[in-house]
Amino acid sequence: MTPSTYTVTGHWIGGGILAGSAGTLPVVNPATGDIVAETPAGTAADVDRAVTAARAALPGWATTTPRQRAAVLRAVAAGLAARQEEIAGAITAEMGSPIAMSRTAQVGFPAAVIESVAGLADEFAWTEEVGNSLIVREPIGVVGAITPWNFPLQQVVSKLAPALLAGNTMVFKPSENAPLTARILAEVTAEAGVPAGVFNVVYGTGAVVGEAMSAHPDIDMISFTGSTRAGRRISVAASETVKRVALELGGKGATIILDDADLPTAVAKGVMMAFANGGQVCGAWPRMLVPASRQDEVVALAVEAAKQYTVGDPTDEATGIGPMASEAHRQKVVGYIERGIADGARLVFGGPDRPEGLAKGAYVQPTIFADVDPTSVIAQEEIFGPVLTIIPYADEEEAVAIANGTLYGLTSGVFGEPEHALAVARRLRVGQVDVNAGQWNPLAPFGGYKQSGNGREFGRMGLEEFLETKSIQR
């Protein structure tokens, strides 16, 4: 399927396509700079129409049983799997994810998340007895979901699955930079049996559509994934109606390599967690903390690992790192690389120049710095690109202090003797820690401490975010 077939002619409201009330927004392929589609530029009036549809559909959907809703969700997962190639192609075209990753992480993970959430229907305590009280868990109402461009399907599915299982209806605003999968998802939900109005899509910018959703009096909850800056603004706008706000924001994770770690394994995994999706991952580990006496050994291993990542055309199966999601973002990442050099970090791989042979497109060289000051800009701010900062530490106390020493607290990894690594993991102020590359678990809660946000996604705790609790005394 060619990118031109992804052109979106209207919003998805009330189970069908409704024309927008304003102009259109271009969707640019970051690998070529070509416009591959257009979507409506939504307005507050479009948000009103979607909220009205969601509010009207709420009573009927909320009175279905959790088991019935789970069956519909499983049909959604099957529908997404059946359209894997189409979805993967759309994501690669709109934000540059390498096609191999688009098939797996971008499409495969969302299907797994839906299945895991659907599996909660029969085991979750929808009601329970506490003394003379009946505790009832009920849908919160109309949920507004706002997502970023780096994982266009994964981010919305992480909200859609628990919200719908809980009995809520939804109004969804995808990123204007990566909106193409939203229409496919809407079509899949309809085919799976999601009633009209339960899931609605309004395209547009955060400044217009996101703002209108956050402040809307008939939206009961906003679930947002994106930058910490945008999360702050959403919190302010939502406060006027005292709605619930769940925020999954930025990160500055660390790979902590202890003195008893398997060094080659730890470094290889750390490089992968810094460069995956071009580093455009909130849960990435862009800092690598290493014993000072072993920094040179780590640098050599990291450089060799980085050489294995082919930068290029994201439609090529061999590509490991595609373009940044936009030219503006490429320039931002390059600016951070230049800042690292200016601040005295030792450049050991890559740099600010374009990758060889890629004069066109939003490409950045994967870059590694060593001898990085943990208080420097590149060690503190979220770069959101393929930039790894290697930071030496004197002892374990300093390693923990450095790891915890940012305003973020989303993810990190610890490598070392298992019990030793676990002890260090417990000391980290982050929402999720992998010990020796522990396997991803879709039922484990995901979310951040500090300015990485609040609330949790996935599993039982992710479902609870979308429920109200009522106590009935008798």
How many separate domains? 2
**Order of strands, widest sheet:** 14-15-16-13-12-17-18
Could you tell me the radius of gyration in angstroms?
A: 22 Å
> pLDDT average, as an integer?
96
- Most strands sheet: 7 strands, mixed
Distance between the termini: 60 Å
**Shape designation:** globular
Name the CATH homologous superfamily of the largest domain. Answer: Aldehyde Dehydrogenase, Chain A, domain 1
Overall CATH architecture of the largest domain: 3-Layer(aba) Sandwich
Strand content: 15-25%
What level of helicity do the residues show?
Answer: 25-40%
The helix tally amounts to 15
Total DSSP E strands = 20
CATH class of the largest domain: Alpha Beta
Classify the fold: give the CATH topology of the largest domain.
Aldehyde Dehydrogenase, Chain A, domain 1
List low-pLDDT spans: none
What structural class should be given to the helix and strand makeup?
Answer: alpha/beta
Description:
With 474 residues, this protein is of the alpha/beta class. It has two domains: 3-249 and 451-473, Aldehyde Dehydrogenase, Chain A, domain 1 (3-Layer(aba) Sandwich); 254-441, Aldehyde Dehydrogenase, Chain A, domain 2. 39% of the residues lie in helices and 20% in strands. The chain is built from 15 helices and 20 strands. The chain has helices spanning 44-62, 66-82, 84-95, 99-118, 152-165, 180-192, 206-215, 228-239, 263-275, 295-306, 327-342, 377-380, 396-403, 418-426, 459-464, and strands spanning 11-13, 16-18, 24-28, 35-40, 127-130, 133-139, 142-146, 169-173, 199-201, 221-225, 244-248, 254-257, 287-291, 346-349, 367-370, 387-393, 411-415, 432-435, 453-454, 467-473. A seven-stranded mixed β-sheet has the order 14-15-16-13-12-17-18, sandwiched between helices. The radius of gyration is 22 Å and the shape is globular. The N and C termini lie far apart (60 Å).
